[in-house]
Design brief:
The chain has 395 residues and is of the alpha/beta class. It contains 17 helices and 8 strands. This is ATP-binding protein.
Length: 395
């Protein structure tokens, strides 16, 4: 098969050639956009799931849907230990620029940009740094609004002002936040508080976040009402029909077919995870001699796909862990069966250690995004099949 024509695209956040199995989330977001357009109150949206299930791809698709309706949008990727002010300011600046030309009062837009600049500059406690760093806004900073230094107060004022501009134009604003579980506690609390105020005001501004499975717990720990504040969508593996569609549709556009047995083998190998579907599909295409692609082609290609996953998807994460953290993860893998959450007490028993002595390793892995706290007293891998990979490394 011609590798140049290979339609499959495994990659971090890279849109697959066929976005299968996500119609429910796309349709629900269309309803959100339409309700906001009609000045109806609507909740912000949170996507949660393991790595490799396509949260970032879906987040980008939702953003495209908002842009197609004339909304102003901006996107950030949260990072641990990074304050929210500057990246959020850049995202909101992008969103406002998208709708500014439609506003009938340029002075109002400039006034808001002055508030936005003041909000952004408040990020640094060092006066010299504030004077040197500029957020790309060519108007003077306005004092007395969104610049108190209290992020919860400032964010509410900033987003209410931004939504007022959008209301004037008759469109909405949406801020998209990837890796949202990495936002610090104070900033998460501010986002929840701001979304609460926006919802009560019926403001045409929503936050669309994506994060690991414990994101709802992070939000709930910040504000108890967050369970009712957001619309949560759990993004999981694809069912059989959707996984087949993700493979068949791109191949048919290249006049290539799969046998039913090949599709059986591919679903077994990929287990429905979108990233794995693309990885196995790509390797099988490259090694198959002709159409239709057969189960034997899948069998021959599987080691190539597994080797690429071992290096790029699993190995790159494993290499980030310290020896103590690797020991902790191996114990999790031995206990988890097939990647299911395990009790932290069971890991301590497996390693014959006191739970408190393992806290640094556990906390380090959580901070690196390799494991997450599934429920109180339990932990799980953020990457599907990571336990299987670790067991293969220690056999």
């Amino acid at each position: 098969m011609d590798p140049v024509r290979n339609p499959y695209a495994p990659g971090a956040g890279q849109r697959p050639p066929e976005l299968a199995g996500r119609d429910k989330q796309l349709d629900a977001f269309d309803v959100v956009l339409e309700r906001v357009a009609r000045s109806r109150p609507e909740r912000s949206v949170m996507l949660t799931g393991l790595r490799g299930v396509g949260k970032t791809v879906l987040l980008n698709q939702l953003r495209s849907a908002a842009v197609s309706r004339g909304w102003g949008t901006g996107k950030i990727e949260a990072r641990p230990d990074q304050e929210l002010r500057r990246p959020l300011s850049s995202a909101l600046h992008m969103a406002i620029r998208a709708i500014a030309s439609a506003h009938r009062d340029p002075e109002r837009v400039d006034d808001f940009l002055g508030v936005l600049k003041a909000f952004a500059l408040r990020a640094s406690a060092d006066k010299g740094m504030r004077e040197r760093w500029q957020p790309g806004i060519d108007v003077p900073a306005v004092t007395g609004r969104a610049d108190s230094g209290d992020i919860e107060i400032d964010l509410v004022e900033l987003l209410l002002d931004a939504s007022s501009l959008a209301r004037d134009v008759g469109v909405g604003l949406a801020i998209f936040i990837d890796e949202m579980q990495d936002i610090g506690p104070a900033d998460i609390s501010a986002i929840c508080g701001a979304c609460h105020e926006l919802s009560q005001d019926g403001a045409p501004l929503i936050v669309v976040g994506a994060g690991l499975p414990h994101l709802p717990a992070v939000l709930s720990a910040s504000k108890s009402y967050s369970e009712r504040l957001f619309s949560y969508h759990r993004i999981d593996r694809l069912d059989r029909d959707a996984a087949d569609q993700a493979l068949i549709a791109p191949a048919e556009r290249e006049d290539v077919k799969f046998t039913d047995q090949a599709l059986d083998a591919l679903y077994t190998a990929a287990d429905g995870y979108p990233y794995f579907v693309q990885a196995y599909g790509k390797a099988t295409w490259d090694l198959a001699p002709e159409s239709p692609i057969t189960a034997e082609d899948v069998r021959v290609a599987a080691p190539t796909a597994e080797e690429e996953l071992a290096v790029g998807f699993f190995g790159s994460r494993y290499e980030r862990a310290t020896p103590a953290e690797r020991e902790y993860m191996r114990a999790m893998a031995d206990l988890s069966g097939d990647d299911g959450p395990v009790a932290t007490s069971a890991v301590a028993t497996e390693l014959a250690r006191k739970p408190a002595s393992l806290s640094p390793a556990r906390d380090g892995l959580i901070k690196k995004g390799l494991i997450y706290s599934a429920e109180r007293g339990t932990i799980g891998f953020t990457v599907p099949h990571f336990g299987r990979y670790l067991r293969s490394q220690t056999d």
